[in-house]
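Hi R.,

Quick one: here's the Phosphotransferase family protein sequence you asked about.
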Amino acid sequence: MATAPRPRTTTRDPEDLARRLTAWLDTRLRGAKAVGVSVPASNGMSSETLLFDIEHPEPPLRACALRLAADPAAYTVFPVYDMVRQYRTMRVVGEHSDLPVPKVLWLEEDPGPLGAPFFVMERVEGRVPPDVMPYTYEGNWLHAASDEEREALEAASIGLLARLHDQVPLEEAQFLSPPGEGDALCRHVTAQRAYYDWVVDGVARSPLIEAAFDRLEETWPREPGPPVLNWGDARIGNVVYDGFAPAAVLDWEMAALAPREVDLGWTVYLHRFFQDLTEAFGQRGLPDFLRRDRIEVRYAELTGHTPRDMDFYTLYAALRQAIVMLRVAYRQVHFGEVVVPADPDTLILHHGSLRAMVQGSYWD
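And here's the predicted structure, written out as tokens:
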């Protein structure tokens, strides 16, 4: 894990993007230039991020971040990148909650200027728990923090979910409702099945993922509860922190209307994903951080809603992560970075923990 190359995430030329960005910016703010254009080392494997400053005699601001729809030539993680949807989500959250969402400035739906639609937002300075190497590994600021500092960060981060779920009126986010029939949870899972079918189109299917879908059906909640606005990718790696306090909540491309526990299960499992990998490589990690029991208690105290059916929702999170990991692995195959093994399930980094969840033994 420590020496594995980071999967390729783009085929775009950063210098060409910088030139085209400056030309576009001049159409929005006459005489402005984009300077210091860079791609952050933490750039994700879905939408791409560019950081830049505005050089102008009277700029409304100087520090910006740009979210650009994924490069179609880079074997994208998701089939669709709806930048209008992300832009609208951030505006709704910013207008109807007190979450620190960066102010969105411009939306460009025309793919001409940069090759794909994008939006620009204010850039918030701070630090982000790293994914590579994961913050559960030694050698980063969060791992080196005291227990008290991590507890403060954990409490503030769960508070983000509580406030998001409680504050944003459902009617303001109806454009995020998944299509189809049935309740919000049914439609959310149906969308994930469609995503999985897209991922395995023309390549080997995953018996483990399909067994996980079957297990969901067997353990389906009797009362999923009403939907709320879900962040979607609800994890601390998508938060900019000022010290140990959230300063900006990022990455809204997976936002949807769903039961509260969909977000909570994702928060719980995405930490466990990193923790399990860290332990597998011989390190202790952060076993007392973001524990499921503490997250559930804290969320209940903040909202009055006691999380239910969390075995189901953490399995669902692990399943969703497995589909993403399978797509990322097949992208590495596409670029010649890895070969397909005899057992395609081993392409999923956390196949062991997902299998344990399907068998009902993970939380024992």
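The chain is about 40% helix and 10% strand.

Cheers,
M.
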